[in-house]
Structures are given as C-alpha cells and as structure tokens.
C-alpha cells in the first residue's frame, strides 16, 4: 500500500498502445510546466502526484486518456482496499473496471455491491444512485487494485468526427486523429506555438494541431494533395489565418519563421509515393533544409518505418533522443514514433 495519496491523480488510459498513452500524459504536463512525480504505472493506469490544473489540461489535450480520478487507495488485493475511508457528500455509485482480463477470480458486480455497502455504512446519510449519481467511486482491477473518485470523463468520441473516412479529402496513407494528436502532444507545443509538417499529405497531423490552438505550416509537394489538405482544414472551420500550406518541395522551400516543433509522417509503406527517392536520402535533404528553423530545445517528432535507424539522423544533426515507440501497422511493416530534441 502507498501511504500518502494526497494530490495524487490517476489517469485511466486507452489500451491501444503499451507506452504511448503514458508518454503523452507526461508530455502534456511538461508542455505547461506542471511538475509531477511518477509514483505507479500499471496496465492502462498512470498514478502521479501533480498539480490539479492537470485535470483540465490533460482532458482537453490527450488522445489516449479516458478518465481522470483522484486516487483514494491502492492495494495488491481487493481486501487491501475494502476498509478505505472515502469522503463522499452526495449520491454515489461504485463502478468496477477490469483491465485486460486482470483478476478474473473477482466478479465486478460483487465488488461494486460490497464496496457500496461499506461506503453506505461509513456515510449513512448518503444514498446510492445507479443511474444518475453525483459522485462515482471507481475500482480498477489491473496489475493492482486501484480505487479512486472520478473527476473528469474524456469524450474521445469527438475524435471520430475527424477520422480519415469522415474528412472530405481522403488519402490512403493518411494518419488517423488519435495517433496524430498524440504525436503533436509529444512535441510539447501549446496554444499559439508554431508547428511545421514538412510532409503534410492530407493534413491529419496539422488538423489535430489546429484543434489544439497551435499554428501550422504544412509543406506538400503534390498540388492535388495540398488542395485536399486545405479543403480538410476549411471543412473543420479553420481559415487561412490559422494555417499556411505551401505547395512545394520540403528540400527547397525556405522558411523565415522560427519553429517550436516539427511533427511529421513521411511517405513510406502502401499508398505512399517517394517519387523514386530513397527515404533515407529524402529525410536527410529535408532536415538539412529545415532543421535550422527549429528553435533550440524544440522537438522533432517523426514516424519512421522500423527498418530505418534514427540514430544516424541523431548523430548527423546533433539531436537528442527523448523516446521511441514501436507500433505495428500490418504484418510486414511497423512504425517507430521517435521524439528528438534539438
């Protein structure tokens, strides 16, 4: 058991990836200068001590966070948390969430009933409301048992309106909104900052940046695709004051602006065209041209195929590797999400 749980927040994360959701939360906190101490990380749960401002900021920004809660108790077994004293002042219910098939010997409905009875005995003036409670006690069955009070549910369904299939202009290699948003968050940019995507494509990454109040420059070599990306931006309510799309070659386009971050998904795999170029050569030429515009301390977040070693890029351009995440695309191809700092 962890003795001191004061100021500890819990983040219930999507199980879509093993490492990205954890890194995304911490990147968001770093972006806004919110200090944190990582206490416990278990399957789909990040428990950290941090500023309460994180509740609003992470719920607005995160692609992978499902719910945020105050941590009330932690134990190895359900018996470790059954006698917790949880302060409640309104109608409540207990909701049990089993993560990844953990603790199959426990019945969630039994856990909810038992803890509900205990809480009623501690708070005899309260009532249980299963349909519309004013407070909700959460019991997570993961690698450990974690008990919390729900503070904020994140409506991830809003991401669906920006799915590739929902955009007016579609491209077979377009990145979906969840990963695109996470990559922008990993680049540690906030409202008003300037981000570049030198391989804009249909604009999936740029669109998520715009949704978070970040200014965007996108470079796209194909005129039809550049116009399609612009159409996508317009369809979600953005104007030319919010973004700039340059139809040109990222190896040649000269930028005057100082960039806060570069976030991109260069072409590779099915549905992508390199126009006869080797990806390694293309990347080197593009970075040679644009990297000097990235401010010192700014981040480059890039999606690369698993067979391309980012260490060569780091060496050649004096970049520091912050983190790397492997994602499987299909049977024959995986991508690495790489975060570098200048």
TrEMBL record:
Pfam families: THUMP (PF02926), UPF0020 (PF01170)
Compartmental location: Cytoplasm
Domain THUMP as annotated: residue spans: 60-151
Keyword Methyltransferase: yes
An example molecular function term from Gene Ontology annotations: DNA binding
Keyword terms, alphabetized: Cytoplasm, Methyltransferase, RNA-binding, S-adenosyl-L-methionine, Transferase, tRNA processing, tRNA-binding
Key word S-adenosyl-L-methionine present: yes
GO CC annotation, single: cytoplasm
BP GO annotations: tRNA methylation
Catalytic activity: guanosine(10) in tRNA + 2 S-adenosyl-L-methionine = N(2)-dimethylguanosine(10) in tRNA + 2 S-adenosyl-L-homocysteine + 2 H(+)
Main location (coarse class): cytoplasm
EC number: 2.1.1.213
Annotated TM spans: none
Top EC class of this enzyme: transferase
Domain of life: Archaea
Similarity comment text for this entry: Belongs to the methyltransferase superfamily. Trm-G10 family.
Annotated function: Catalyzes the adenosylmethionine-dependent methylation of the exocyclic amino group (N(2)) of guanosine at position 10 of various tRNAs. Acts via a two-step process that leads to the formation of either N(2)-monomethyl (m(2)G) or N(2)-dimethylguanosine (m(2)(2)G).
Protein name listed in UniProt: tRNA (guanine(10)-N(2))-dimethyltransferase
Organism from which the protein derives: Candidatus Methanodesulfokora washburnensis
């Amino acid at each position: 058991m962890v003795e001191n749980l004061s100021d500890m927040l819990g983040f219930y994360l999507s199980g879509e990836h093993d490492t990205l959701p954890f890194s995304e939360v911490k990147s968001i906190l770093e972006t806004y200068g919110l200090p944190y101490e990582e206490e416990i990380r278990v399957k789909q749960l990040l428990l950290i001590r941090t500023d309460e401002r994180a509740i609003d900021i992470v719920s607005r920004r995160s692609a992978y966070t499902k719910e945020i809660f105050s941590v009330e108790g932690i134990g190895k077994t359900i018996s470790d948390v059954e006698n917790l004293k949880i302060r409640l002042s309104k109608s409540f219910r207990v909701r049990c969430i089993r993560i990844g098939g953990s603790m199959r010997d426990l019945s969630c409905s039994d856990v909810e009933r038992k803890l509900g009875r205990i809480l009623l005995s501690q708070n005899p003036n309260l009532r249980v409301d299963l349909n519309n409670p004013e407070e909700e006690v959460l019991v997570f069955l993961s690698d450990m048992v974690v008990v919390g009070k729900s503070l904020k549910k994140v409506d991830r369904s809003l991401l669906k309106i920006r799915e590739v299939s929902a955009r007016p202009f579609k491209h077979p290699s377009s990145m979906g909104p969840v990963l695109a948003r996470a990559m922008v968050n990993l680049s540690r940019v906030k409202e008003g900052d300037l981000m570049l995507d030198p391989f804009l494509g249909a604009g999936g990454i740029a669109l998520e940046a715009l949704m978070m109040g970040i200014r965007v420059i996108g470079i796209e070599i194909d005129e039809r695709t550049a116009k399609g990306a612009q159409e996508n931006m317009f369809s979600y309510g953005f104007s030319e004051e919010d973004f700039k799309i340059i139809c040109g070659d990222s190896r040649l386009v000269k930028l005057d602006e100082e960039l806060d971050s570069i976030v991109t998904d260069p072409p590779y795999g099915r549905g992508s065209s390199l126009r006869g170029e080797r990806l390694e050569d293309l990347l080197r030429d593009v970075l040679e041209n644009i990297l000097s515009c990235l401010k010192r301390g700014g981040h480059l977040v890039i999606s690369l195929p698993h067979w391309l070693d980012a260490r060569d890029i780091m060496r050649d351009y004096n970049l520091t590797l912050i983190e790397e995440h492997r994602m499987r695309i299909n049977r024959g191809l995986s991508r690495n999400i790489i975060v570098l700092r200048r």
